[in-house]
Known about the structure:
Layout: E1 2-8, H1 14-26, E2 34-38, H2 47-55, E3 61-66, H3 74-86, E4 90-95, E5 98-99, H4 103-136, H5 149-160, H6 165-172, H7 176-191
Parallel strand pairs: 1-2, 1-3, 3-4
Antiparallel strand pairs: 4-5
Helix pairs in contact: 3-4, 5-6, 5-7, 6-7
Amino acid sequence: MLIGYARVSTTRQGQSLDAQREALVDAGCDPQHIYTDTISGTRWQRPGLDAATAYMRPDDVLTVTRLDRLGRNLSETVTTIADLAERDIHVRVLEPALDTSRPSDSVVVHIMASLAEWERDLLIQRTREGVAHARAQGRTAGPKPKLDAEQAQVAKELIDGGKSIASVARTFGVSRPTIYRAIQRVEAEESA
């Protein structure tokens, strides 16, 4: 059975959703079995896609108009296709024409999976190199401290003078954990 899935990012793209439905019906999908989502591709949880895949049985075919309807990037798209393949469910893409039930197209999906894994590995490697470079220049990863060195020193002096952590946090307009981190930074600098 051909099951259709259509997705748009915003409600203003309703016409695009209608166009996807028409294309899916023209491709042979039963109009009663076309599932939709109006949700950004950056969100991984998509109830329409979940409902479609929950309904599907082995040898069914999930049909989409474009490959980017299945995931926000190549890795997630390939993961979705692989998850369906484990359940003996095929994927058919109308543009560009791709059908995982055909052996030649199945090879394309495997190549895409390899490229997605390579892309992920490159991203990890670049991230590690960037962090190492930043550390070599004396920078640390993560957000900048909410209190600069002078404010952190004042906060420590106030606490050493008997003020509570909560009152010092209110004074600076930050949370108590921020005050604790600021004091740790000051103490680390003093012991260095």
